[in-house]
Structure formats: structure tokens, C-alpha cells
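Our consortium's second objective concerns turning raw sequence data into structural hypotheses that experimental partners can test. To show how far this objective has progressed, the report includes one record in full. It was chosen at random from the queue rather than selected for favorable results. The single chain below, 735 residues long, was entered without modification.
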Amino acid sequence: METKAKASRGGARFNVTANLLESESAERLPRSVAYIFSANGRLLGQEIIGEKGAELTVAASEGSKVHVLVGPEVKERVTLAELRRRGAAEQALRVGRELHNVDLQVVPNKWQHWLLGLCFVHGNLFKRIHFGPFHFTLCVPNATVEIYEVDPLPRLILELPDDLIERIRDYIIRPFPVPPPPPEEIIGPIGPLPDPEMEINFNMAHARAAQSFARASAALPEARAYVRATAADAQTAPQMSAQSLQRSPVNSISDLQFLATRTSTLHFRQALLLNPELIRPIFCILFPINVTMQLVATAVTNEDGYFSTFFFRGINNPDQPDLYFRAKQHTLWGPNTVIYAPTPIPCYTYWNYQCGTEVSLYTSHPAAIGRICDPTADGITVDRIGDFPLSRIRGTSVNLAAGTNTGNIGLTDSGSPWGGVLRLRLEFDRDLPTNAVKYYRVQWRKGTSGAFTDLSGNVDWTAMRNAADGTPIYSVYNIGPKIAPNGTPNLYEIHSRGNLAPDGVSFWSPQDLGGVIANNTNAIFDSMTLAGSVNPDQPDKAGIYQLKIDLFNNNGNQVTNLTAAGVRFFVPPSVAGDITGDDADHPLLDLVQGSSFIMSLHIDNNPPVVDVQAPTLNSESAGECGALEYDPDAPGTVQVPFIAGQRNGFATFTYKVRKGGTDIFNTPSVGVGVNSHVLLRTQMHTVTSLLGDCAVVGLLAQATVSPLAITGWGPVYNDVSDNFAFALAPEMEEA
């Protein structure tokens, strides 16, 4: 049967054909609905598809991407994820001026079992890139994801040799510390590659089993008392029968420990067969067993790293499938580069996978090609400084507004100032640019009053396309500064990272680590040049600096009415997990003044200062020789003068004394305080405490200053240390 959803005039018009292929039996066709979602997952429209069709017109701009789905009628809240979970047919396309004809076929096995028969598998493939304490996630497009079904644990347990069953029994009775999970190892076409994934990501089933296992291993007084009582008599301990084993409840590792001391190998294997959930972490980390896998489906990730497929599980199959994933991509290393294949396989298997739920796969493979994931907010989101979200900066965060005042505005939530080269990141809705909003300009000023000055640093993004043979080809595109048609200078073009590059073929993709930073840059504020450090006797340049963002139309005229232009400014959401940004003109923020977005940053490029000077004892300095003589009858006190600070107190310091290979004195990290860059501190040590059991001793006094200022991608300055080595020896008797 063929039904249609027709579009009327105005907006984006769609003609959706849903072919629900009929089966040989006489089942009644289900009611089907046409849905259209924006690229951000916002429902744009829906309509029941009847015999006479249904009119469907949505508000979507030319060039934006939408998802057209045909699926079952959903009574509750309609979401893209839920329709995908239920197996709706889907097609993604970009909006044009013409009527869009979309033909979606739904096979009988799909519409018959939208909830039962087939196992639908959805997920996302990401690339995780690390920059010191920061990490950045990219979506991985054009990758082939292979989905394997792994033999269920009961079958694996059934095939284990007796000696491994006994090793598991021994561990259950006498658990020892569990080693850390092994790193992922990927074998590529040219041999072993660097470990691309250094962390293990348990799914929820893994986590629950690991937590219960850890709790049981940590403290089992009753079970261990029983073990100690029976261990000496293990050979004569009565064996439990299969019938009693079936009647014995096994709810925790402690119960399994009890059975381990009372059963034969055969019956203990049966206990494991009945309770595989409890011992998954054992197979993952301690005894990674070989598993049998069968390829059941493949899928190709779209430009957003999303994949979706299905396989026929079988209506009469009572077991939840156990799935393992691998991924390949055509990279600069060659075709079919394996970019995701974590091991040991039991650690990365989704045991008892619930069909229709999304999985998230992460790789750190150096050759994997990723792109910036789609923005999630409408309008314009002033998103980050570097990789640091505005939701964690005082003055741009609703969540931090209650504790924000004139003394800390512009600092991070942990009290850090800003410095170095600051890279502003903006996110634009995929409906932009339009003729009404095509350019943006960023300006700066010191303080909260006075004229602003244009930022004019060059911003280039990299884009990637695949040649006919699949080879990745990178290109560079200049975002700005540009001169508008009317002559307005220092404007930057608006581009959504979720859309294609201007050639209409390539997508925005960083080529290397430097490309990640460049592709996440919309404007550059070189604070080190404009507000750099100065000598202590000169006026300080640190303090509040403001950034101002204005919008311009396609001719270069400034947008003076945001509402008329159909845009709004947002900042990242303060609530974790929320994908809807906070309004920039929220009463607690008031970041929109007229048609401009203005935010404050506290900038301080003053460097950390450290200087450990020569210790003294009884007014005698260690000097160039680095030695101090003490009177054994009146040892006295050693004084160590040092400077450890930063001009405005944005640093912490530690001080320690080392004797041989051991720290004998160590202060906790404390704030340095204002004007501490010229403050001479003195640390006192009694000679007796420094000597210990020694008569002559060599010592090292060391101070370390840890600056707080950040660029958003890392610290402005690294830790700095200074030290002074000296010795203590008894006074020499005069001849």
C-alpha cells in the first residue's frame, strides 16, 4: 500500500511516500505517521499518513539539514531517538527550494515487528582528543561499523576447561586486588599501532556487576569467616547436590563464595551458569577468555557520526543479544583502517544489549578522521573560550550568578583568570547564514566603558572531502577577516560547523591537533600582546576586559534588531546534560545590550615568580659553598628565605626540604597572596629536625609556584621551581 504526505505552499515542502510493503498473510497495516526533525533533533512537524495523504509543511531554511521519518504513531512525547529505537524508516536531506519527494519503503518484517521482531542497533562513533587536562570529542563520519554477536556467557562458561573453573573458584574464595583494565590494542594494516583508547568504558551492565563485585570483595566478614573455618577441611567438606544448588539463592559474591567452598567442579560450574552477571568483571580483567563472534550487521556512519541498522534476532529467541563493535575508515593510512576494535573483547561487549538503545563508541586512533559535532542550540551560542565553556565562567553562567560579584566576575568557577592567546568559539544554528545575518564582528576593550577595538586575527578552518577512490583530501578556508560589500572591515563569515564547507561537498574536519584548535576558533584575542605582563614597578595591565559581538547582514550593515533578523544570543546551559542553551539576556546575566553581546573576562598575564635564597644559621649564610656549620651543644635554627608568588595572587605554592631521596618537610599547596611576587618569606627549621640521626647531612630546599591563569586549552604558564642545596656539618674544632 502506498500513502503520501503532501506539502502546501510556503516553507519547506515535502512529498513523503511511505511504501508499507504488504506481507503474504492478512495482517492489518499499522497506522503510520510522517515526522520531520531539524538537524538538532527538534520536531518540525508530523502528520498521520492516510488514504488521501496529509499536508506537511515545515519551517526550515534553504541549505539546512532535516530528518524525514516514517514510523509508528507515538502517543507520548515524540523524539528522534524514540522513533529510531522503534525502527522508523529514515532519510536525511538538505532543504532546497523545490518540492522534496521522499520515498521510504518499510518491509513487512519491519512494520510487523516495530517493537518485537527485529533488533535495531543505533549509536554514535566519536573520536576523543586529549590536550593535557582537556579533552575534545569529534564525530567520525564515513566509517563502516561492524556489529558482531558474541556467544552468551552461559555458553562460554559451559565450554570452559575444568582448570579455569577451579582458578575462578580459587579467586572467588580468596579474592586478590583486581589489576587495572588493560589498554585497548588495535592491530592495523602496518602492524601494532599506538594504543588509541587508554580507558575502559563499561556499559551499564558492566558497571552494575563491577560495583557489586567490588563491594563483595571489599568486606565479606561472614563469608570469609566461613572460608577460614572450612579451608583447612576443604577435602572433607560436604558437597552440595544439584538440587540444593537450584534451591540456594545466589544474589551476591558472598553467596557465590559460600557455594565455592561447598560444591564440586561440576556443581560450581552450574552455579556460574545460573549467575553469569556476577562474574563478568572476572572474565573481562582477570581471565579474558576467547569468544566466538558472528558478524550480524554493518552500518556506515553519516556526517554526524551516527549509524543505524538492524538484524533479525528471531521471534523465538529468548536471549538478549550480546554485541561487540568494530569500525573501519578510509584514512590517510589507507583504506579500511581499523580505528576501533577494543580488547579484551569481553570488556567491551554490550552484554544483554537492549535492542533499540543507542551506544556510544569512542576511539583515540591517531588516523581516525573526525568532524566537529553539530551545534545543538538555535540562534547564536557564545560557547567557549578555547575548550572552556561559558557555563563555568562567572558573569556568563546562570548557575554561578548567585555568587558572582565585581570582585570575581570574569574568573572561572575555580577562581582562575585568563591569559595568553584566547580563542573565542561561537556556535551558529544550521539555518544560518541568511541575507539578514551573514557576518559577525568581535571587538575588545579594557574595563567596562570606552570605545571598542576590532579583533582582526586571521581565522582559517580545514575541511575534508573524499576523492573518487575514497582518499581523504583536506582544504583550508578563510573565515575572516573579510571586507563586506559596503566596505565594512574586519568581519568574519558565519558558518555552522554542522553544515558543509562553502564548496558544498567538503565538511569541516580538523586535520591534526592544531586543526582541532583552529576549527574551534571564531576570533582570536591575543591578550599577551594587548594586556601582557609588565615589570613590578610599572602599572599593571591585568583586570577586566570585555569582548563584544555584533552581527551584520549580507551587505555589511550592522543588525540593530535581533528579533526582526530572527536570531537570539545564547550561552551554554548551566544544567548538566541540558542541550538547550540559556538566554544571554536572562535577568541574572544581562549579556545583550541593544543588539550586541558583551561579556567580561578577568585577564592576568603576570608570570609566577620563585626564588629560593641562601639559608642562614646564626646569621651565617650558606653562601657559595652551600655549607652551614652548627654547634652540637646548641644546634640552633636554619632560616630559608624565598619568594613564591604572583602579582595579583593568582597562583599557589608549595615548599619542601629533601634529604637524600626523601622529603622530610613538605607544606600543602596554599595561595600566594596579592603582591607576593616581591614578598620575602622565611621558613624555619631546627637543626635537630634536619639532621635526624645524621651528623652531616646534605639538603635541598625547593619552592614551586603553580600559576592559575588559563587560555581555555591549557595553562598560560607552567609550574616554576627554584631550589638551594646546602649541607649541615658540626663545627670544626680549632687546632
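The partners drew two points from this record. Residues 3-9, 181-249 have pLDDT under 50 and may be disordered. The radius of gyration is 33 Å. Both points have been shared with the crystallography group to help prioritize constructs.
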